[in-house]
Fold this sequence. Notes:
Layout: H1 15-29, E1 58-62, E2 68-73, H2 78-92, H3 99-116, H4 126-139, H5 145-162, H6 184-194, H7 198-208, H8 215-227, E3 245-249, E4 255-263, E5 268-273, H9 279-305, H10 327-333, H11 344-357, H12 364-375, E6 383-387, E7 390-394, H13 405-416, E8 442-444, E9 460-462, H14 466-472, H15 482-485, H16 497-508, H17 513-520, H18 534-544, H19 553-561, E10 584-585, E11 590-591, E12 612-615, H20 619-644, H21 650-671, E13 681-683, H22 691-698, H23 704-709, H24 718-727
Antiparallel strand pairs: 1-2, 3-4, 4-5, 6-7, 8-9, 10-11, 11-12, 12-13
Amino acid sequence: MSDIIDFKPKVNLEAAEQLDAFIAWAKDSLPKSSRVHEGIRWDMNSWHQSGLECSSFTQLAHNKNGKAETKLYMQPPFVDFAKAIIVYRCVYLNKKSAQDWLSCIRTLEDALVELTGARDVTKVSAPVCNRACELMHLQWARGNNAYARGKSLEQVVKLMTKKRLLAKPFRWISPLKQVSVGTLKQQKQDREKKLPSRESIQALGELFNNDLTNPLDIVVTSACALLLSQPARVGELADIECDPIVFKEGANGGQRMFLLWYSEKGFGATLKPVVVGMEQVVNRLIERMLPITEGAREYAAWLEDHPDEFPPHEGVPNKGLDEPLTYAEACSALKLVLSGNKAPRSTFKNSYIDKLAKKKSLSPAAREIIDEMLNGWDTSKGKPVHVMGVKGVRRDFDDKAVITLRKLNTLMREKYLPKDFPYTSPSEDGKKRVKYRDALFTVRTGALNSEGIATLDFGVENAASRHRMISQLSSGGNTKGIFERHGYKGVKVNTHAFRHEMNTEMHRAGLSQLLIDAFSGRTSMGSVYNHETVEERTQAVAAVHPKTKQSNAESRLEKIMTNAPLSLSDVTELAEGGQDRVIHQTHLGLCVHNFASDPCPKMGSCLRCGKLACVKGDEEKLKNIKEERDYLQKRYRDAIAAESRGEIGATEWVTKVCKDLFKCDALVKLLEDPGLENGDIVWNTDDGWNLTNNAAAMAGIIDPKTIEAEKQEALPSLDELSAILDEIEV
Length: 730
């Protein structure tokens, strides 16, 4: 959170008065934030260039041909509410982006006007939100964009309720569902789309091991190598320091390489281990990058340490900071090229002052200098003169403004330096991050321009920016990418594909979802990144459950079909203490618990017990499991509805039914998996709970978290369960 004091609603005010107070709080808080530009104003139609990413209060209207035609603005008083919401999220909460929130708010305005005929935010209701979701579903029919914006609208409604901005408060849950993973064919298409191709990985490896001399090639291959050394986002490369390596003692006593990493989306700073086998690659890429960025890092340090001085170079006139400059000297200091017959005066104004004046977000100091230049500009065409009866024009102008290096320094920094300078990116948690002087990928502006277009090098930038990486790893665009430049025709890769690849490999290595999320810098479940094939998952089942017995499958299935007694040796390789015994059959499968020693420790909760074994080919048991799944599905939806009504205990019931339904559906999928043969056994996984542990936890003898940690597999979130429900046929 920032240092700004939160808005606290007053009890005695009506919703309309609370809304006015909330907007007034936002207007007062906006200029106090250090992450937004000094020149930001409340009445701007867009705050995007002022430091608030994706905060444009406009939308495009389209003609009959589908082409953008005009811009429509949010209408008052709704636009003030939208701006206040963005201030709360991006300024007070320090969130980096407001794109989803702003998108759902725009749709909320349309639904509000449609159902109420006005833009009174206090009249937002559940029907209005439902209509907004319908509009979002029409606009984003494919993928999970509509689902994500529906979730954002949930958060907006919760915030409005908390701040008492609603005339009639209500509880609401978005009806939009997450798109399911689909059929096996769709999963295969998804893998091919999101994972990097073998050709792209091989090409990058070959390029990395070549003797590259082009700095752009070195930057691109080094960035890709980093993204393949640990699951990261391309935007996080900006915050890699030039000396990021930390060594820690590993589990086996050796030294493990870690990188100091700043993860986006709220995860923050962390030490992330480098994938085993990539240590030498990381060392090599850092050695390559340091000479390329050394000069830029020194320049960034000079800019930070000398904020009031103009950067020295050969064209800077030998004058003091406050001595007047001629237009020719000003152009030389700014590296402006005098082409053709253009005079220094017109070049200075047309190529610099006029362009900078059009910038919407200017600091007060820069705006004052620009206004001084423009207001003092002699707009005449020159002074008339008469020589021997002939009328002429003398190019002698009476400009009032005085140009100095101090003023040019202010304008230069305004034009060329990133908005977060001296830091590479804004902070999400209120803490400062990495400076350009310390960042591994710092270069001067224009240093990596592959098209040979001249760009003034007054500024510094991130060499591995998202835009540059996307263009360099693509194929067939206006800019020749690294693959095309080196003869790999048609090869391309998405920058986010490396993250999907790393997550999938970690799943294949057997890491839990919790560890994978932590390793990836995520605060939520990321199973969407897992692209293991069905065959790989089937093999993993056998590896995780060594008790699964593949021999004697036909005999086992025959006994089940004929209701013959089954022994412990029929389903396990080792009998208890060398003694064989008859095992029980339940409505779901086989139970190997020894009831002669103690009663059922699960009290009949078979879906949570590790002693439940299901046999592939037992159609009667499979039918029972499907009926149980349908029953649990109805209970789950009833529990969700009860939770939305705020009924006591509903949340706990949702969690319980969620786990049972997930387990039931997983058993169905495995028992119908063509990769398993009839007679094969599928063992259930235990959740760690039994009557003894439950009693001990209630008595405070053991910590419930200890039991949670002993679970054999991570259970899905409620959002993932919603996707599972979409696949289940009622």
